[in-house]
Automatic annotation (TrEMBL):
This is NADP-dependent oxidoreductase domain-containing protein. Residues 71-254 form the NADP-dependent oxidoreductase domain. PANTHER family: ALDO/KETO REDUCTASE. It comes from Podospora didyma. GO terms for molecular function: oxidoreductase activity. Keywords: Oxidoreductase.
Length: 349
């Protein structure tokens, strides 16, 4: 069942079970109804939108095409987040998961950048995660239900990522870090997260997901706010570049964020002739050329560099390629390289 059909069926079954008002921004007609071919955005147009301007989510948040990832930065998190914003990043990804992230230090870096006048809150896209595996809320005497755990985690994230003592804190998106082993628990977490949308959390996403879970979250009774974002491994080894899920995201107008794009694909990008050809012709590093190709198939890149020079190179280089490929000279190199890349990772549009 495709995304549209699944959502429409879900809506009907939900409506039978309960009377509810579905917020307009959650199920806009363009999400429920397949567009006619005349109205469908062409692949080339999609590539332009996703690589240069970012993605507008259903709740109004704007997601830039490259997000700074804060995993494994430990005590350097605040300084690296500050450096990333200084270099031009306008999106930060963190998580309420102490083992891999320091959300409080991510918030500190963001606040420092705002206080120093590098950026305004409304120019930033701030994303965190509720992590079912985190130990912070695992004590069932204190947090007896999944709903209690989710609410406690969200309250803590809002505190960590607060940017002003006067304005109400909001998050551009909150991602369920992974589905639970069973759908009932996943739905319990999801329906609790929905309580915060749209005032406190603009959009919801899910990470490390399968198509089955997306299907459930788009049609289960009680789901009024289906995912706007998927955050998954973008790798050959992962269900052939996650092509089926990327296709689902395209059909549902959802954002697809890819991680481990460099570290998870060392057998591919360093040796691919079309990556080298593109990098040489555009005058950028191999990593940047690889990122530009990934963005052009609609994948929002999570970039985990710890090196300020790489931060600037990646942001400026991908922007440079997006402009250069519009020129006759650039197009002559870009088109065959992009065709080879699309053949590698699958055409989903
Ligand atoms: N949802 C999840 O379960 C999940 C899991 C993993 C990651 N993530 C998110 O994805 C983010 C990125 O993950 P990642 O750090 O593993 O993957 P990555 O961005 O694929 O890899 C970053 C590594 O590549 C190196 N690198 C070399 N040249 C680079 C360049 N020009 N630009 C960027 N990096 C370059 C970096 O070294 P230098 O530091 O020397 O540049 C760093 O060691 C994480 O921070 C996190 O936010 C989410």
């Amino acid at each position: 069942m495709d995304c549209f059909l699944s959502k429409a069926t879900g809506l009907l079954s939900s409506a039978r079970l309960r009377i509810s008002i579905i917020p307009r921004h959650h199920f806009s007609p363009s999400v429920i109804l397949p567009l006619s071919p005349r109205h469908q955005t062409s692949i080339t147009q999609q590539a332009k939108m996703s690589s240069s301007s970012g993605k507008l989510l259903s709740g109004g948040a704007k997601m830039p095409p490259m997000i700074y990832g804060t995993a494994w930065k430990k005590d350097h998190t605040a300084d690296l987040v500050y450096e990333a914003i200084k270099a031009g990043f306008r999106a930060i990804d963190t998580a309420a998961m102490k083992r891999h992230y320091d959300e409080a230090l991510a918030g500190e870096g963001i606040r420092r950048a705002i206080q120093d006048g590098l950026v305004k809150r409304e120019e930033l896209y701030i994303q965190t995660k509720f992590s079912p595996e985190d130990e912070a809320y695992a004590d069932t005497t204190l947090y007896p239900s999944i709903a209690d755990q989710v609410r406690a985690s969200v309250a803590s994230s809002l505190k960590n990522l607060s940017t002003s003592s006067s304005d109400p804190t909001y998050l551009d998106s909150l991602v369920l870090h992974s589905p639970y082993p069973n759908h009932m628990d996943t739905l319990a977490a999801w329906t609790t997260l929905q309580e915060f949308v749209p005032e406190t959390i603009r959009a919801l996403g899910i990470s490390n997901t399968t198509l089955g879970v997306l299907h459930t979250l788009s049609q289960a009774p009680g789901v009024t706010c289906p995912p706007s974002i998927v955050q998954n491994r973008f790798r050959r080894a992962e269900r052939a570049w996650d092509a089926a899920i990327r296709r689902w995201c395209t059909e549902c107008d959802m954002a697809y964020q890819g991680f481990w794009t460099l570290t998870g694909n060392r057998a591919d990008w360093p040796t691919a002739p079309f990556v080298r050809e593109l990098a040489d012709a555009a005058g950028v590093e191999l990593e940047t050329a690889w990122y530009a190709l990934i963005q052009a198939v609609g994948v929002v890149v999570l970039n985990g560099t710890t090196n300020p020079a790489h931060m600037r190179e990646d942001l400026e280089g991908t922007k440079k390629i997006a402009e250069w490929r519009e020129t006759d000279e650039g197009k002559a190199v870009w088109d065959p390289c992009f065709a080879a890349f699309r053949e590698l990772v699958g055409v989903v549009g």
